[in-house]
Amino acid sequence: SQSYFNSIAKENFAGVVNHLLGQNAEISSKEIPLLYQLFIDVIFNKPENAYFYFDIFDKIINSCRIRLEEINDPQNRNSPIHTLINTEKEKLENIPYLSILSHLCSKYPEWMKMENSAHCIPLYLAIAKADINGFFCLCRYMQQQLIDFKRYLKQRKFVQEMIGFGIKLLEDDNVTIFK
Description:
Layout: H1 10-22, H2 32-45, H3 50-63, H4 80-86, H5 89-92, H6 97-107, H7 122-128, H8 132-144, H9 149-153, H10 156-171
Helix pairs in contact: 1-3, 2-3, 4-6, 6-8, 7-8
């Protein structure tokens, strides 16, 4: 996929954004979903500069008073956290997955409890994918933000996925502590 940032230097992008925000530029409701695309583009195509861009996106979000639940994939209402958790392991090998996930969880806690169009929060997706690192990361940040993750874990669909998760862990050759 083509990166939005291939043709513009990061400093130029920051300069343009700062200038526009200084002029009290506003973002229309049609433009807000582009922020989702920018987050995804940075995560997968510019991970070495992710925090630089995340700071710029944060300025836009705060200056334009954008509600975080509006920053999602319009097709399935996935937040950037949903998308990161839902990404295949092979695509995550070249990015600092837990570092980016931790940053997004701490900076945008609303995304941790936001449901997508399938009524799934990122914690459920981590369980369904047997992503133990993502699971523990989400639990940690949900606890820090006083989001009762245990309430979710008691729901039937979570319990069913956790049983499957446990089975996958026991089948994993890398998990030797249980064997």
